[in-house]
Amino acid sequence: MIILDIEASGTDPHSGSILSLGAIDFEHPDNQFYDECRAWDGAHIHDEALAVNGFSLAEATDPKKKSEAELIAAFVAWSEDLRDWTFAGQNPSFDRDFVAAACHRAHLDFPFAIRTIDTHTLAYMHMVKRGLVPPFDAIKHHSMLNLDAALNYVGIPAEPEPHNALTGALCHAEVISRLLYDRPLLPEFSVYPIPFTVPRVW
Known about the structure:
By secondary structure, the protein is of the alpha/beta class.
């Protein structure tokens, strides 16, 4: 799996731009990728998005930063030798679609899997199988199991703000390891014990 997290200038991959990308090879978690770029010319840049990812408008448009095309080419090159090109993370379709749009803008083939692995689904299923009720928003009629809730569930504090693509990828990877394999993955989180034990059947 490629644990992936993207910070972008908005939520629409066709009108917005990647601003930073963090990724981890789940099988070899010391193999990591992080890079930043400027928004492509004409991309929509939303103040709400910048408030989440912490970039200023000047940073998001800094001509000294590499272009989105250069960033996505570097990411594709980093991924080439990995065994599994399945993206995983919180709402990974968002990240996948931004990678696909960036590849299209850069005239690169999109080599990655369409299917993704979602930490929300993994955490939801894990809770249900333990007899717990996942957090639910009765007013909006949907799950409230966001990344911070999943982190707390596996014994880790909330992700620091503003969001950082590599920090996000590290958090996703640790959550996935604890949910799937009942074991920690990264030294950054080793001080936080896993608050549950699931009997292994394999």
